[in-house]
Amino acid sequence: MGRRSCAICAVGIICSSLLIVGIGLIVTQVFRTMMHNRLKKEIVLVEGSRVFESWRRPPPPVYMELFFFNMTNVDAFLAGAKPQVTQVGPYTYRQYRYRANVSMVENGTKVSAYNTKSFVFLRERSVGDPSEDSITTVNIPAWAVMNKLKDSFWKASMMSVWMNSIGSGLFTTRTVNELVWGYEDPVLIFGLMAKKNGTSNGEFVYHTGQQNYLDFGRVVTWKGQSQLTFWTSNQSNSINGSDSAFHPLLDKNERIYIFTPDLCRSIYMEFEKDVDVKGIPAYRFTPPRSVLASKEENPANEGFCVSPQECLGTGLLKVSPCRKGAPVVASFPHFYLADEKYVAAIEGMSPEREHHQTFLDINPTTGVIVRANKRAQVNILINRISGFVKTRTLNETIIPVMFINESVVIDDASVARVQKLLLIVNVVSNFPLIIVALGGIMLAVFIILLVRARKQKTTSEDETSYTPVSGKEKEDPQNGTYIGLTPKVDAQA
């Protein structure tokens, strides 16, 4: 019994110790903190880190789909009818991107690089041949020149006469390749993505995240400038956030900022919902309506007005300050999240969340983008311009030209790496729960041992008690009641 009691006592001590230690570790979150600190140190933009090579040369394939709006009633529109467009696309390109001339600066706390992109057409993912398919749309070079001269009546009049003499109209029909990669117009050379194949959009300097993990991948300067000069307020000219990298340990309540040179500004995204991509948990972030809201709806956007007279409604951003004065207007596809009047003004618009929303799916533990769709639409603002006779019948209208859908989904090799890292993080972070579970098992063993010991004690006590030989007590004539005994047999008898 002594050994059994010692064993029970030992189990009890082990059980209580495991429970106390496990609960203490859960409360203090020692292992979780330790793991998070390790992530903060390892997910940095320095040579040899877990993420540096994939940041320099992102492995997942990026696809760029181009959808054009073919204008079907040009003559009727010029006569006063509502413009009618038909969506044509996609014309799909595989986008290859990498960061060139990568170098560490300021003792490794920052890193500089040029973001280089090149494009290869994918016929099997496209609706047609971009070298043959034609699109009728706004004559952007002509409108760019007209807007450039709108403040000078005499120059505008002279240009109007010259444009009429060479047959340059307000609309044009060009092949997809010409519209995208460029063509020589009588007015100027133009292409929506001219000189963007195989080139970069300037030098970026990023925080490595070594000093503060929250700064991981955040843009410090672009083209040597820490502030933009396109807009009318310091807030609007601020370069905030990253272009494609996000810090680990992301929180749902965060507002993440993204700097995009294509829009010449920073935008922000907010948490929408939890998603799962190839078995990896992620938070979906998407731009809210307030990002492109009017100054009346969101006063913070007043700085994005080119001038008080050139401030558009919700859902639109006039980017002419960074497009050499061309009347280019950015929006989400089909005027998604824009004022209804812009949708109603064009026959053929049908905004849908599923097809036109921009979003990022980010694994919150690592900050890795597991899926993304960046969608933006190019529009041209046309209106009556003094000196140009052809515009005299026009009212201000936002004509959609095309929209771009850049999409990416994490590749299988990257999935395996992320899942391995998440497994390590989860096991280490939840180690206290394992200790508590073991303590619970030992507690169950302890209880079982106690119950069995008590049963055995009761049984032993029953075995040492006595009972009469029969139910009716026998009497000894001399000694009264007696106990029946079994006589000892003589071995020699």
From TrEMBL:
InterPro entries the UniProt entry points to: CD36_fam (IPR002159), LimpII (IPR005429)
Annotated stretches, region: Disordered: 458-493
Localization annotation: Membrane
Xref: Pfam families: CD36 (PF01130)
GO process annotations (BP): protein targeting to lysosome; receptor-mediated endocytosis
Membrane-spanning segments: 7-31, 431-451
Alphabetical keyword list: Glycoprotein, Membrane, Transmembrane, Transmembrane helix
GO-annotated molecular function: scavenger receptor activity
Main subcellular localisation: membrane
Entry GO terms, CC: lysosome; membrane
Family as reported in the entry's similarity comment: Belongs to the CD36 family.
Identification of the protein by name: Lysosome membrane protein 2-like
Organism: Neogobius melanostomus
